[in-house]
Each structure stands twice: as structure tokens, then as C-alpha cells.
Design goal:
Chain B: The chain crosses the membrane at residues 20-42, 265-287, 308-335, 355-375. Chain B: It is found in: Cell membrane. Chain B: Keywords: Cell membrane, Membrane, Transmembrane, Transmembrane helix. Chain B: Residues 269-385 form the ABC3 transporter permease C-terminal domain. The complex is a heterodimer of chains A (227) and B (392). With 227 residues, chain A is α/β, with parallel strands linked by helices. Chain A is built from 7 helices and 10 strands. Chain A has a single domain, classed as 3-Layer(aba) Sandwich (Rossmann fold). The longest helix of chain A is centred in the last third of the chain and has 16 residues, at 176-191. Chain A is globular. With 392 residues, chain B is an alpha+beta fold. Chain B has 2 domains: 3-48 and 256-389, no CATH class; 56-247, no CATH class. Chain B contains 12 helices and 14 strands. The longest helix of chain B has 43 residues, at 249-291. The radius of gyration of chain B is 34 Å and the shape is rod-shaped. The chains are: A alpha/beta (227), B alpha+beta (392). The interface between A and B is medium-sized, with 38 and 27 residues.
């Protein structure tokens, strides 16, 4: 069963009078519980691909189906609901909110849900425990190391129990050892059943995945199934 | 954590910016409250003082005959006696419905008398005016008397012109219709008909002119701040059917005009200050939204809707507006209490807590916040997460 199905996805940007072809006719399928790495040099269109999968970036043509939902047939506001319920995002620069504590940052996606206050706190604490940051709940992001901040970001991505985790260069701002730690965390999450797509240009990261998808100049070059 | 927690925490993080916004809006509301309160208090006191300052209603006998002028008003001939006013009549003025508004009633008997100084000097004619000194002094607060006020029925106060033509000094003795009077005081030049008159006790003048119980006219000072002078004129006319009651309209209208102009000025200034504060808040919130593009982008990415973002931004503004309205009113009220007595020149001014102005302050403050904040909030809600984060 496929969690994700991209069919003939094309994305063209208009910069001035010039058309930039960010993605050309990409077709891709990701199964439930898979761990996929998207590789490619910078400017290859891999981040654009991730944003299209995540419901942030409407493709010029083609369809994106997640868990049976043709997501770009949804309205802008419904798409926000979709992102909250189905997708967990992790970024290269963590993007934590500096004036909120670790616990509050993790609770952010829950604020606009119907959970009770106690449920929200319980969920956030549970996830923080899972990423190993229970002891730093009351800290602010700038009091944490890069690796710790990325763990908070991952906790935030997980707290809403999404089907799909999308990570854009999650190790890009970390030293190689911490990067491996983070990739290991993704692997653990994958082992516990989460579907994960990581965009990276670091071949080291590919080792953790089930499959590796290569992108260059907006085109899918090939898919490698890893041992 | 709720949506508003994000707003509150952001306000607390940017303490300086929050303080600045609060300061600007508190100052605006404060100015509004102070100007409105003080202009109201000062107006009231100013009006009361103006009302006490000279007469605004003139009561004269009904007559079609020759007239003389008094204080710029046409009054009936003093010689015409058919319809003369009785002293008792004017007591009725105190019985009208709006009697609380009647501040001073000053009856007068005016006539021509023969005057000489010393035993051998020439007899000359002069105008004498019989008054009740107590009410006359109350009415003519601008009178400056050299010497002292008369203390008995045989003492007079004379106008500056009279003093000059008879060469009289304070303490001199003067014969009026062969009766001896002492000059207790001389009026400083007023530029009015008062300069030409001898002021004596009403009863004495009635004796001299042999017009017991009669008066020529009565001047009335009515407090017209909260009731139209026309209404008082009508009420007096009702109790005095034989009298002609005239409002010195020009005076009344110019008094009202002064008050209204002051009120308009206050509103104008408040309006400008509120507008400026709205502009400052607008630019400030807009800058803050631009600064927070990335943060808003994250919230949009993790599933916040446009209206969630809008609520976060508007909550910040409304919190600031509400607090500003509250503080602005309380501060304005406090300062008004201190300043009002100084500005209105009396100590018995009470500036009470005005619920209507209090609620108005909060609503105006919220209104300014919404007007200044709606565009930045809308702009924030429309931020495209892809553009905001650029990472994807």
C-alpha cells in the first residue's frame, strides 16, 4: 500500500519573464512505513519536491495523493488542516520559536487542536521523553545545543502523530557526529512504524534509508533500493 | 497553551516594543481623557463665572414711549410712570420654576436729582441710581472702588465722571435734593454709563424721588449653563405680566460660543493625537509582522490556518489597546483631578469617575488598535510559508 503517490508532478516558477523548471514530470511512490532519502546537489529541486509532498507548494501540473487524499484539490485552509494532521516537518535550521520553552515549542501544533490542556501537556512530555529531552522542557531554544534543538524540532514534528515525517537537510547545521545521532533517531522512529522522507545531499545519511531517490535538474534520475 | 499564549509571550519577549506601543496609546487616551474632562470642568466653571459676571436678563416696564439706553439695551423712559415696576414684583422672580438658576436680582431706580457740594456752590443736575448695594456689587464684579463700599443709607458711591465734574474726593459731603450724603467711594472708570451716575441706597433714592416702592428696572443674572436663557425669560414674563423681560442675547450667545469653541478645540486636538498614535501603532505592528515572517511561516507550515495567524496578531494588539484604554483613562482621570481646580480657579471642583468616558476610552483604544492592526494582521495571515522559510 502506498502512503504517497506523485504522478507526473511538474513545477515551473516564473522569475521575471524567465520560466524556471524546478521539477519535471516526477512520478514517485512511497509505501507506509518506508524510509526514503532524496539525494541531489543543491538547486536540483529536491527541496521543492519535499514542499510539494508536504502540501506547501502547489505543483504546476500533476497530482499528489497522500493516504488516499488528492491534497491539491483541497482549499488553502483545508491544506493547513492536512499539514497539521498528516505531516510532521523538520528543517535544517530547526525553526524553533525563540520565546517559547522547549515544552511550548513541542506543543505548538497542538494549540489549534481540540485536545484538553492536560492532554496537550501529556502528549508533548511523552514525545520529549522519546527524543531524550525530558530534563530540558523548561529551557529556551538558545540554551540548547544544535543537536538538542533538532531533537526538539523532531519532537514538534511528531507530537501530532502524523503519518509522514518530512525532513529537509536535518543534519545540515550539525556536526557529523550529531548528524548521525539525528539520523539514528529517524531510523528508530521508522522502526516504530513512521514513514519518513529525508532530503539531503550527504551520502552518509542514505545508509539509514530503505530507498534512495536521486534528483538532478528537476528530474528523477533513479531509485536505488538499499540493502 | 492557547493561541493567545503566543501573543502574550511575544509581547513579553519584546518588552521595549510593547512598552513603546503601550506608551503611545496610553498617552493618546490620556490626552483625550484629560482634554475632554478638563474642558468640561473648566467650561462648567467658566460658564458659572460668566453667568455671575453681569446681568444677562433685563426686566423693564412695558411701554411704547421714548426710551433711553442702559448698558446698550433700550429701556423705557424713566419718566414714564404709567406702567412702572413695583419693588414687590421682582420678588416674584424668585418664585419661577427655574429659580435655582437665578443668581442675582438687582433692582434699580434711576432718576434726575439736583446736586451741590458745599453750601455756596451751584446746583447741578445728576443721574442717581438707587440700588441694593449687596446685589449690585455681586453683579458688577468688575467694579473697582477707590475708598470703600457704602455702609449706611447716607453714603454713596459715585462714578468717575461725577467725581470729576463736581470735583469730589473720597470722604467729601454732597447735598442731593437738600439731603446730606457722604462719598464713601469712587468708581474707577468703567467706560459705561456707570461713570455718570451716583449710586445710593435704593430706599434713600425712593425717598428722594418720592417713588416709594417703585423701581425703573431690574437686572437679573441667571446661570444658564444647563438651561436656555429664553426659558428663564419666559418664566419671568409669566410672573411679571406688566414687565418687558429681555435676554441680553448677544452676550449669552457669545458666552456659549466661547465654551463650544473650547470644546471643539479639545476634540480636534484629541482627534489628531489619536490619529498619530494609530499611525505609530500601524507602522510598529507592520514592522513586527515583517520581522516575524519566518516565525509565521513555521506556524503556517505546521498547520496553522490564516485565521489562527490573524488571531495571534490581533490578540497582541487588542491586549495592548485594552490595557492602554484602561491606564489612559485612570491616568487622565487622576491628572484631571489635580489640574482642574488649578485651571478653573476654584477648589470646589469635583472630577468624578465617569463610566461613560471610561468605557468610551477603552472602546476608542480598541478601535484604534483594530484600525491600525487589521492590515498588518491580514498581511501576516497571507504570508506564504514557502517564501517565508526559503529552506524548502
Amino acid at each position: 500500500m502506498n502512503l504517497l503517490e506523485l504522478k507526473n508532478v511538474t513545477k515551473h516558477y516564473l522569475t521575471g519573464s524567465e520560466v524556471v523548471k524546478a521539477l519535471e514530470d516526477v512520478t514517485l511512490e512511497v509505501k507506509y512505513g518506508e524510509f526514503v532519502v532524496i539525494m541531489g546537489p543543491s538547486g536540483s529541486g529536491k527541496s521543492t519536491l519535499l514542499s510539494i509532498i508536504g502540501g506547501l507548494n502547489r505543483p504546476t501540473s500533476g497530482t499528489v495523493v497522500v493516504d488516499g487524499i488528492d491534497i491539491y484539490s483541497l482549499s488553502q485552509e483545508k491544506l493547513a488542516d492536512f499539514r497539521r494532521e498528516y505531516i510532521g516537518f523538520v528543517f535544517q535550521s530547526f525553526y524553533l520559536i525563540p520565546y517559547l520553552t522547549v515544552l511550548e515549542n513541542v506543543m505548538l501544533p497542538l494549540i489549534v487542536t481540540d485536545y484538553t490542556k492536560e492532554q496537550k501537556i501529556a502528549k508533548a512530555k511523552e514525545i520529549l521523553e522519546r527524543v531524550g529531552l525530558s530534563s530540558k522542557m523548561k529551557r529556551f531554544p538558545d540554551e540548547l545545543s544544535g543537536g538538542e534543538q533538532q531533537r526538539v524540532a523532531i519532537a514538534r514534528a511528531l507530537v501530532n502523530e502524523p503519518l509522514l515525517i518530512l525532513a529537509d537537510e536535518p543534519t545540515g547545521n550539525l556536526d557529523s557526529l550529531t548528524g548521525i545521532e539525528i539520523m539514528k533517531l529517524f531510523k528508530e522512529l521508522n522502526d516504530s512504524g513512521k514513514t519518513i522522507i529525508v532530503v539531503t545531499h550527504n551520502p552518509e545519511n542514505a545508509k539509514f534509508a530503505d530507498r534512495c531517490v536521486y534528483v538532478k535538474d528537476g528530474k528523477l534520475l533513479g531509485i536505488e533500493v538499499l540493502p | 497553551m492557547k493561541l493567545y499564549s503566543i501573543s502574550i509571550k511575544n509581547l513579553l519577549r519584546h518588552k521595549l516594543r510593547t512598552f513603546l506601543l503601550l506608551f503611545v496609546l496610553v498617552l493618546a487616551i490620556f490626552t483625550f481623557v484629560v482634554l475632554i474632562t478638563i474642558s468640561r470642568v473648566v467650561n462648567e466653571n467658566f460658564a458659572k463665572q460668566l453667568d455671575e459676571y453681569g446681568a444677562n436678563i433685563l426686566v423693564t416696564p412695558k411701554s411704547n414711549s421714548l426710551s433711553i439706553t442702559y448698558g446698550g439695551m433700550m429701556i423705557s423712559s424713566v419718566e414714564y410712570e404709567k406702567n412702572e415696576l413695583r419693588e414687590d414684583d421682582i420678588l416674584k422672580i424668585r418664585t419661577i420654576k427655574n429659580r435655582e438658576n437665578i443668581s442675582v436680582v438687582s433692582p434699580k431706580l434711576i432718576g434726575i436729582v439736583k446736586v451741590n457740594v458745599g453750601s455756596n456752590s451751584l446746583m447741578k443736575s445728576a443721574i442717581i441710581c438707587g440700588v441694593n448695594f449687596e446685589s449690585e456689587f455681586k453683579l458688577k464684579k468688575w467694579w473697582k472702588i477707590l475708598g470703600r463700599k457704602p455702609s449706611g443709607k447716607d453714603e454713596v458711591v459715585i462714578g468717575s465722571e461725577v467725581a470729576r465734574s463736581f470735583n469730589l474726593k473720597i470722604g467729601d459731603v454732597v447735598n442731593i435734593e437738600a439731603q446730606v450724603f457722604k462719598v464713601s467711594g469712587i468708581l474707577e472708570e468703567t467706560g459705561s454709563q456707570d461713570d455718570l451716575m451716583i449710586f445710593a441706597d435704593l430706599r434713600s433714592v425712593q425717598d428722594l424721588l418720592k417713588k416709594h416702592g417703585t423701581i425703573t428696572l431690574a437686572e437679573v443674572a441667571a446661570l444658564c449653563y444647563n438651561c436656555p436663557v429664553e426659558e428663564i425669560v419666559r418664566q419671568i414674563s409669566d410672573v411679571l405680566p406688566n414687565a418687558k423681560v429681555t435676554a441680553i442675547k448677544q452676550l449669552v450667545e457669545s458666552r456659549m460660543e466661547v465654551m463650544h469653541r473650547f470644546g471643539k478645540f479639545s476634540f480636534g486636538i484629541s482627534g489628531i493625537i489619536l490619529l498619530i498614535s494609530a499611525l505609530i501603532i500601524f507602522t510598529n505592528i507592520l514592522a513586527s509582522v515583517n520581522e516575524r515572517t519566518k516565525e509565521i511561516g513555521i506556524l503556517r507550515t505546521i498547520g496553522y490556518k490564516q485565521n489562527h495567524i490573524m488571531r495571534v496578531i490581533l490578540t497582541e494588539i487588542l491586549v495592548i489597546s485594552f490595557v492602554s484604554g484602561l491606564l489612559g483613562y485612570l491616568l487622565g482621570w487622576g491628572v484631571s483631578m489635580i489640574v482642574s481646580p488649578i485651571l478653573s480657579g476654584t477648589t470646589n471642583v469635583k472630577v468624578s469617575f465617569d463610566w461613560i468616558l471610561f468605557i468610551l476610552s477603552i472602546f476608542i483604544s480598541l478601535g484604534i488598535g483594530i484600525i491600525a492592526g487589521i492590515y498588518p494582521a491580514t498581511k501576516a495571515s497571507k504570508i506564504d510559508p514557502i517564501v517565508a522559510l526559503r529552506a524548502l
